[in-house]
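Self-study notes.
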Amino acid sequence: MSNLYKTNHQSQPPVFDVNNIFQDSFNFNNAAFQLFNYQFNNNKVYRDWCNAIGNTPDNVNSLPEIAFLPISFFKTHNITTGSFEPSVVFTSSGTTQSSTSRHLVKDTALYEKSFVTAFERVYGSTSNYCIIGLLPAYLERAGSSLVYMVNKMIGLSGHSSSGFYLNQLEELAGLLQQLEAQGQPTLLIGVTFALLDFAESHKLQLNHTIIMETGGMKGRRREQTRQEVHEILGNSFGVSTIHSEYGMTELLSQAYSRGAGRFVCPPWMKVLVRDEEDPLTVKNTGTGILNIIDLANADSCAFIATDDVGIVHEDGSFEVWGRMDNSDIRGCSLLVV
């Protein structure tokens, strides 16, 4: 594999065809090396980082050896592969003490392809669901990749009751009861603090509804463990399992958990783990700080060193335990365990 990769590196690499990652026959390792090669040659910020730490296409032979760009660079640089006018710029919510991340997206159709395909691999067609977004804080600002995703899924669902809810909790409770009476499969996707607010004010028995939290307290409530949050939501909504979505401003792909906070990536995304004391030591499995390969990030950077702490299991699934000490608190940060 490495010999083929290095042979290809001898000449200017062709444009990386990102659409191939959605084909069943694509090889992740080969695609990752091709994209590493392409981004090294066409992304100056990333190339400078690779050179600074000494991990370049000439001496990388395995996925853990690839250079992972610190996620904080999205706050200080425009991270682009090639030159283009972005069709949208996604931004993190940030805090008053920190700058926000900016993800310049060349083609929103690619983002849509990624999140729709990833969701439907796990849950089936979006057209099967009434999709309800409980994302109040994110609706109040522009540039949220989460709002963009849920809004698109609401449109694809085609259900007349699909939509966003701000603070209309009484109306939401009534709608969910109507959908339950109809036996309508429903997805209620929301930020954690909003779901907890709803759970505290309404007790429902939901047999046909998936409750999916996306993380995020935004300083609205005290931090709670994922287990505590899921127990509260499960008791209030009469469900045995709380689902979760893992995504961030800097990615174009998401991982999903169907319970217990254990996430599974789509085929074009992979999570590795780096050592907290030696960030250049990266492994395929184990505990530490999470590094992500998102091949959908062909036009920005596909290789990102996050601030999330967790574990990567032997089967490639992973858990997020919290965020590194001293890292910025962001709206999409996941719950501390």
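Second protein, same conventions, sequence then structure:
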Amino acid sequence: MRNILSIFRRDFRSYFTSPVAYVVIGLFLLVSGIFYYLLFSSFMQYSYAAMMQQQDVPVNVNLMMIRPFLLNISVIVLFMIPMLTMRAFSEDKKNGTIELLLTVPLNNWQIVIGKFLASYIFYVIMLGSTALFLIFLFWWGNPEPLPVLIAYIGLLLLGAALIAAGNFISSLTENQIVAAVGTFGLTMFLWIVGFSADFTGRILGKVLEYLSIVTHFEDFSKGIFDTSHLVFYVSFTFLMLYLTYQSIESSRWRD
């Protein structure tokens, strides 16, 4: 455990000793804020129109505001994750410090888990910053907290799966740009693969839909906690961590 924490502290600190942390969080908040403003403006216009027309139509802030906002967050995350994971292993490979990690008394799992936790905790902090937007809705409105909590659990699971995949891609190259582009390509594939389900056979369509990493988040965004989606995200995360382990093992064997 001590070795994992050492790797975690080293990699987590490296985010804030470079502009990466501030650029990623700033860009994430900027794009999220734009979507929040647009959705909030649309919600207020609808509410005002309903009030002026004296329509007895229930205005559900969870359905009309929070769910679309968090769905947009899940898409924004797809673009942010490559920036978080591109340097996980590639920077060590480029600087030659990966050889040092492989020669000190650390096993591969300690390296993989330590680096994964560094990226994941940074992601949790970045995601937690979006709660600032929702505070105003809870302050002025009356949204249901449980669906919001479930949606954030889904975003945490989605982030874990994508970060594990990004770390795996980073372990394959010493070029950070290649790692970022490779991770972006993989996340885009895992996103759009579900769109092709309607144009294939029933069995293949179900397989493609199941592989779509964002499709599994849709139930979470509705406040539905389905254990099948939990199993998918956890299984995918461990698969990517295992592949990263094998990638590091092959590097140790070559050295």
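Instructor comment on the second fold: The two ends are 26 Å apart (CA to CA).
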